[in-house]
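So, can you check this one?
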Amino acid sequence: MTAAVEEDTVGQRVFGGVDSHADTLHIAVISDNGGHLADAEFTTTAAGYAAALAFLNAHGHVSAVGVEGTSSYGAGFTRTARRQGLHVIEVNRPDRAERRRIGKSDPIDAYAAARAALSGRAHAAPKDDAIAGIRALHNAARSAVKARTAALNQIGHVLISAPEAIRAKYGRLTGRARTDALARLRPAGNAVNVAVLTALKSLAQRVKELTDEHKALTKALDADVTAHNPGLRATHGVGPDTAAQLLVTAGGNSDRMRSEASFAALCGAAPVPASSGKTNRHRLSRGGDRAANAALYRIALVRMSSDPRTRDYVTRQTTAGRTKKEIIRLLKRAIAREMFRCLTTAVLVPGTDDLRPLRQSKNITLTAAAGHFGVWPATISTLERGLRRDDALAHAYRDWLKAA
């Protein structure tokens, strides 16, 4: 009798749920009809992951495992489970109403994750490790910018209350000129002046170091982003930071996104239905990944200032009576559609490596080439270096150079 029960247990379909933390993870197992079977706690080590998987498999055939924090505390377990062939599903934390109703604990959250995997409420595949390096570089570059901004603000605050001689000499300077002057100074004078100048010099040197650090990180980030998705990076208005943010939001595996509408909703750029009774309307989405929404916003601003098609579109919408805020909202939705295509399909980027050698062989300056096409020399320079994608201009430029 006991052997028969064990055989039934091994043959049944079960679903797992994982509530992950820094040092431990809690595993819960439920049957295919939602019944609670067992739960246990394991350490976030290789041995703990192996024991957790053995615990899951001991209760039957594991159909799917819902994991909270697949890209953070649960990343190690997720990698191990996927290598073992398990179907892992990314699970968001329970909504607040349910949490207030049933409370919160590790077993409760683990069972909730298992139920989310069983019911289909959670269905997204976890992000793979393809963009782990991009995420690390992006976070480091962002933190360098934040630290640099904090140091610049501190310089301004110190100068506000500094002795009059120091404030008169350095307070009128701005930007890089002020930073360079403060980094070069040699503190002298009375004790107060020496202390203030020493602080200002230290802050200025910190700003310069962080600036160099950010440039190096951005260069490395640009190389990784371009290698991972050259079509996305070559799209007009998409720089290293915005491309990295969109890749981090979407994940390296394109199967996580079902449609361009779901990606727009993920970025908070899709209008949300807000109808009731006789009212039929949509409202602006305040959800989604706000960092990705900010990336779409920056792309929209770049295109509004430098892309002829976008400028024509803005003119038409302005004539139609739309405000600038409404136009940007429409642009972000259209850009999200374009970014989805770049993230999910391989986009062929025509090479431009031949343009600069060809121009130099004809002894044509950047200024002369830019004057012929009616653009700024920087536009031609970035086109030659592959930093700007404009296929029509590139073809026309190549043909002109060959005929020159």
